[in-house]
Amino acid sequence: MTRVLHDKVAIVTGAAAGIGQATARRFAKEGATVVLCDRAEDALRQEAEYAGYESGKVLTYVLDVTKRQQVEDTMQDVRKRFGRIDVLVNNAGITHDAKLTRMTERQFDQVIDVNLKGVFNCTQAVVDGMLERASGVILNASSVVGLYGNFGQTNYSASKFGVIGMTKTWARELGPKGIRVNAVCPGFVATDILKTVPDSVLDGIRAACWLRRLGNPDEIASVYTFLANDDASFVNGVALEVSGGLSL
Fold first, then answer.
1. Span 9-190+217-236: which CATH code?
2. Which one from 53, 61, 156, 224 is the annotated catalytic residue?
3. Which residue, 22, 47, 105, 177, is the most exposed by fewest CB within 10 angstroms?
4. Is residue 32 within 8 Å of 10, Cβ to Cβ?
């Protein structure tokens, strides 16, 4: 049976943990050569040793998506090694939560730099090669917070709203050139990012979700896998909510 990402070269940022990790592993399982990018060097090294990656099917780069030259050098090296980049998953992201009245300029800028400008940096660094081949898939990590906002997340909400705006703009610009661009908007998913959230708050989140639970990273990875492969060949410019019905 042919795996749905057979012979694809896919880059996943923020790949050392959480949704990025699950997505990279799923892509490898589906036959892709996976390039793992993350700024957490030790975690990245450990992830590269995961037994599910086939020999020769995984490559790692320590990468800070806010460092433009570093991004360009990484993407150029990937193209030299494999000849092309078929899929880019812009998954890297951070939070620095605070109410508007208490949020510092540094907190705001850091989240915007990683979550929004980082997506811009990585996409610009791969798009010329995709345009040359008239083929490619760009997948951007947004959030339900990017659809509806959230208390205490001015910076995060702004970044994820912005990602949706860029996604829809790029879908218009690049779709006629054979490149599909979509965004995934997860709800609340059981990753390290929720470890600091009090149980009482998590109970409220579960109650608000019509499946009465948190999501898990594999469920989001499945959506990325669908959007990355040819089964989604007519899907372009969507911001797909994957939240268990949180917004109903």
1. 3.40.50.720
2. 156
3. 105
4. yes
